[in-house]
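One-letter codes give the sequence; the integers encode the fold. A sample entry reads:
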Amino acid sequence: MWTEEHRRIYRREGAGYPSDLRDAEWARLAPLIPEALPGGRPRKPDMRAAINAILYLLRTGCRWRYLPRDSFPPRSTVYNIFRKFQREGVWEAIWAELHTALRERTGREASPSAAVLDSQSVKSAEKGAVTTARWIMTPASGSRAAKSTLWSTVKGCRCGASSTRPKSRIATGPA
């Protein structure tokens, strides 16, 4: 049930956007943001503004091109920071920190002590890699027509068009 205390905590007042980090939230995330590398130019963009821009994009679902210019760094800077954090695992570290804090706040251990597996999870794990189905066009032998074929490939396979196509299943001559 919402009380006045909850409303006061979650009320977003001020000149920013509703997705902007509050001071307490930024104090929790700031130590997880990597420092600028030594030897280069000093970091010019405000990291809090860049994180606010990323949260704005995630919350609103808008395109990078439509990022408002009034209170955020340039979109290319924000995008480069986002991708750098992806490559370096910063997002995973932030998620792990917040997940651990939430578990501790709710009175549970920091890391889960048990997992639940059902028989379907075990069956799919025994089969190996996850496969995905793609529809491709294969030329039908002996005719100018083409037919579409369901071709199952291993997910993550980057072979794409360079791999050999499946044989056509249409008979080409007398059986």
The beta strands are 131-139, 146-154. The chain has six helices and two strands. Residues 4-105 form one domain.
